[in-house]
Structure formats: structure tokens, C-alpha cells
Amino acid sequence: MSTPETHSEVPHRGLITVSIMLGTIMQVLDTTIANVALPSMTGDLGASQDTINWVLTSYIVAAAIMTPVTGWLADRLGRKQLFLTSVVGFVVMSMLCGIAWSLESMVAFRLMQGVFGAAIVPLSQTFLLDINPRERHGQAMAIWGAGIMVGPIIGPTLGGWLTESFNWRWVFFINLPVGIIAFLGSAAYLPNIAKRVRSFDFFGFAMLSLGVGALQLMLDRGADADWFSSVEIWIELGLAITGFWVFIVHMLTAEHPFIDPKIFLDRNFATGLVFIFVIGVILLASLALLPPMLSTIFGYPTITTGLVMAPRGVGTMISMLIVGRIVRIVDARILVVVGLLLTAQSLYTMSGFSPQMDSWLIISSGVVQGLGLGLVFVPLSTVAFATLEARYRTDATALFSLVRNIGSSIGISIVSVLLTRNMQINHAELGAYINPFNPNLWEASPAAVLGDPNALSQLNGMVNIQALMISYVNDFKLMMGVTLLALPLIFLLRKPKHAPSGGGGAPAAHMD
Q1: pTM, whole model, 2 decimals?
Q2: What sign has the CA pseudo-torsion 118, 387, 152, 356?
Q3: For residue 458, which of 26, 325, 380, 472 sits 20 to 30 Å off, Cα-Cα?
Q4: Which is higher by pLDDT, 279 or 112?
Q5: Contact (Cβ atoms closer than 8 angstroms) between residue 316 and residue 147
């Protein structure tokens, strides 16, 4: 398969970048923008609090299953054709979601939206790597990373504003103008890449789909089904283990496997997958924790919550703009270490949150975390593909996106479970001090000791807030530990060698 060899001859590079990034941001936004609209959807679609979550689950599972097949579809249909089809299908399904008349129709349209949207992110990364020379890959990944990481941050804020100002249907209608611009720009300027005849390993795809789909279902349904006390979760866990195990054995033994195992022999790429898994855990897990914390403990409305969290995205943008320019002259591994340390520092600060603080500590820690994640994401995205053969690039970007999404799902599930269970434990421990024999209670609230219902209710509310705050703090400490544990992986990354000037003798490991 041919790719643009002479990068300087790629016309309209700037317009191509804008077009594909609009499509990327549109798709990434939809992973979080609909979350805040779920309560409004419940009544209109005749759903319950339990069943409305299928609006999110169907999208996540469909996108996860279809992401790995991006490489084969791109070879078979052509990258440009697949990208255009994905954008059109995503926009059409978004419009159908906006006019959905029942929960069943919404879930069906969201599922198809996930199917069409799955290829957009990995293809956009592939295009940016293809149309830029290797010395500009850092800047290209900075642009791509900004859309990937800032999208989920602004999603809840934009979704809340659209829901409050108009109604929940505009959460989906907003994709129409963005999608039209992305399609027209991509149709006009994206280069045509030659197709490649490639056999389709249906059994390998089926086993990987079984593993990924069952895992995503388990992670998304776990909280509602009470995790491993539910037969459903055990079945999904068994299917996930079976699917992944059979897929790995088949991949290593088949003549033409769905994913070529040689792709994992590239040390930088394999290590990059582990790193991006950790980034997925930290990025979306913290995003999942903060909005309910700000709403429940601090009483912030949706718009205020979005404004308080917005500086996190600003920090990410700043670090990506900077690192995109210096990644060529500074060892990418040093940037990753600095980014991880900044992220750990922000989580350490967040572990000192209390119900009595103002918003400044939330804003400042968010900026530091944004700076840190940006410093990790760009050099990591650059180094992970620096030594990988270009023929594996589309499969590799699909795996990169899949592992990041799985990390996000696992991270959100873990912190949510720990939050709920620690809340119960903390409430029991704090409640043990509420007794008539505690002299501090006599001093703080004599009425509560004497059994006044209003005083006891206020006291229980205070215990709930403190127990919940301690649970959030414990989650932040856990994420800090995960971040620090990822540091030793830096020794597995190799510094990519720069191609000689003039293009002669460029190593095949990183050049087409």
C-alpha cells in the first residue's frame, strides 16, 4: 500500500488537518456530551433511570468492537473513502438520535453511531502521520492530541449548556454543521491512497469482538448489576477472557491473522500501548469523578462545573502547543517523565481537597494536570509510531485508540466502585463517633444528643459529605499511585534515530 512519500508535495496540508480534526472532535465529544442530557432524555423517551444508561452503553460497545477493524476496512475501501463514509454515517445517525421517539430507537441509532464513528479517530491520526514529514510528527500529534484530550473535557459543559438553553436533542443536532464542514474539506483535499487486497480473518475478528464487547459490557453494566454478585457480570467476564485468549492463540498461530503479531515486536509501540492505557485511566477517570463531586459536595450547577473544569483543557492546550515545537530538540522520554510527575503532583494536590475549600484549588490542580497530560500525550504518540513500519500504521492507530478507550472504561469502573464502597465504609466509621458518650458531640450539637430529628438530620448530612469527600480523596490517591507506577516504563522506550538530511538512507522502520 502506498502512502505519501514526498510529504512536501502534499497540497493543502493545513486544510486537510482542519477538516479531519473537525471530524475527530465531533466523534470524541459524543463520548461525554450526552452524559449530562440523560436525565432530560429519561422522561421524553419513556425510560427509567436503569435503562437510560443503554444510550451510553450501546455507543461505547459498538465503537469498541468496530475500532480494531479500521485497518482492514481502510485497506479494502481506501482510507479516504472510509473516512468520508464514517463522517456521513456518524452525522446521519446523530440526526436520527436527535429525533428518536423511544428508548429502543435511541439505543439502535446510538449503536450505529458508534459503528460509523469508530474509524474516525484512528484514521485521523494515520492521516496526520502520513501527510507530515517525520520531523513534524510532534506538531501533528500535538494537534491530534488536543482534539482527543480536550474534547472529553468540554463535552459535559457543552452538553449542559445545550440542554439547558435548548433541549437534549441539540446535543446530537450540533454534529450536523461540524460534520458537513469536515466532509466537504476531507472530500476536496484528502489524498487518495491506493487500496490493498487483504484477506479478512473473520474468526480472529469475531474472537476479538467477543472479548472487547463482553469486557465493555461488563465495565459499563457492572455498577447497575452490583458487579460480581450478578450472574450477568460473571458471564460477561467469562466471555471476555475466552474471547481474548482464543484471539491471542489464533493470532500467534494463524497464517493470516486479523492483526499481525509482528506489530507488537516494535518495543516503542508496545510500550506506548501500556502508557496510553494509563493515560486513558487517568484522563477520563478524573473527568468522571469531578463533575459529581462539584455538584454533590460543593453544590455547583452544571454551567459553573464546566467553567471550573475548563482551565484543565487550557492547560492541556498550552502544553501541547509547547511540546509540539520542542519535541524535535528535547528527548521525548524526558518530556513523558516530566508530564507524569506533573500529573502525579496534581493528583497529590487533589488528595487534599476538602468541603470547605474554594474553587481555586480545583482550578489550579486542573491546570497542572492538563499540562502534565499534554506533556505525556504528544511525545508518547510520536515515539510510539516513530520506529513502526508504515504498513502497520492504520492497524496500529486503531489499537492505540482501542487501548486508550479500554483504559478509560476500566479506570471509570474502578474509581466508581471504590467511591461507592468507600463511601459506605467511611460513613460507618464516622457514624461510630456519633454517640451520647462523645463529649465533642455534646459541645457541637446538644440537640442531636437529645434526639432532636432536625439536628440528627443535619448531622447525618455532614457525615455523608465528609464520608463522600474522603472517598474522592482515596480515589485521587489511587490514581496518583498508578501514575507513579508507570514511570519505570520509560526505560523501555527507545529514542528514535533521525533520518539523515536529504532523505537518503531513511530507515524502513519508520519511513514508508
Answers
A1: 0.77
A2: positive
A3: 472
A4: 112
A5: no
